[in-house]
Prior knowledge:
Helices cover 26% and strands 33% of the residues. Helix 3 crosses helix 5 (192-208). It starts with a strand and ends with a strand. It is built from five helices and 15 strands.
Amino acid sequence: MPKRHYNGLDLGQRVDYSASVLIERKEMRQAQEKLPGTEEWEMEALTAVSLYEVRNVHRWDLGTAYADVVQDVFNALQHPELHTTTRLVVDATGVGVPVIEMMQRGPYRLNPQGIMITAGNSVGMGKDGMYNVSKRILITMLQTLVQSQRIRVSPKMEHYAELMREMKAFSLKLTAARNDTYEAWSEQDHDDIVMALAVAVWLAEHELGSETIYPAKRRRMNVGDDARDFLHW
């Protein structure tokens, strides 16, 4: 199976960093499940659950021009291992739309998937082809994947400490209108890395699902020592 990479990009503004997180989607194969067969044959299906390994985290200096961010992302995605296997995901909220347009034009010709982060608890797609996804859904999915140990980050990775700090800083708060919102504990906390990771894993799960079921294996039952398995993967 070819490698699948998702590169999440969160674009900062005046007091926020821009950050990029590259993840690689892998699979953890689980026990085979029995499926209905015939009296002579039984069927077994192999299932695999998605895992995500963080391969790279990059945070630009405050005040870095968006043109420089776009150029850096373009250069990184020219790597032979990433050029044809990577889905670029961009937080289109705020300044994101013009930056996405910049990526699509000129020498870049990238094909980013924009995600507008909204309030509430819904997912939709606009006429512009961008997903509208609530922040609650993004963070809830990320928390679920972390708690089920389906996201792996090496402590040796650059910005590991910042990512862990951002994830801990996020909290679920109840507003006066009783809507769930996710925000950092204070204005001094940043969420650029964790949001870049969140949009990447959300799109991966949305497009590919969390579980893969492979074609069934046919096995003859009760036919003695000469029985053979016929694999059809």
